[in-house]
Amino acid sequence: MSKKWYNYIVSVDDASGAEQGTTNVPSAPGAGKSAAQSVAEIASSIAAEPKFTTPISDPTSFDEIYKAAEIPTPPQGYTILKISQMLESEHIRNLPSDVKKSSVLVGLDAAGVDIKEIIQDAIRRDRALDTYERVQQRAATELETRKNKENSEIEAQIDQYVSGQRAKIQSNNEEVAREKERFTSWRLKKQREEKKIADAVGYFVTENPITTGDVNAPPPPSKTAQRS
Prior knowledge:
Elements: H1 35-44, H2 62-68, H3 80-87, H4 97-110, H5 115-201
């Protein structure tokens, strides 16, 4: 039976820097050049922005995002996600950082996996996430633009409606005012007409039966015609 990756754990003497383990630790990228140069070279070998070939129904599913971005799975199955699980394993998670690094490198070497492949996988996944973030940001911005335009149109319709209703209220008030003015003018003429009638009939009655005031006033007492 093949050994588990954690059976290759090595120890490092912090004082002398010499290995006290068994298996030689493979070199990480950048052993002969600066780490920045090595990572830059690895990154330059990968497309700057992945293309999503299938729609994503669940944005919270990172596996679905990686699948849509067509990130290849290494034949040995060692991805940066698997490395993350290895680093959090109960076998090494409490060890010093340099021992954790050495242990993972030894495990990868035993599995025939180049650490550069892991870094490439990490870069691909990161770029897929960044690209999809931009896609979602663009969608959110476009939605905001559409909804702001729709809101502006609704507000314009509301303003137009309110303006129209206020105009109707104003028109109604003006109509009522005109009617009151007309009625007041008519009432004055009516009262003059009634006075003329009352003056004429007053020659023939002791109590004038003609009303010359407001019709809403209390009715006058009954009147009897003057007898000759």
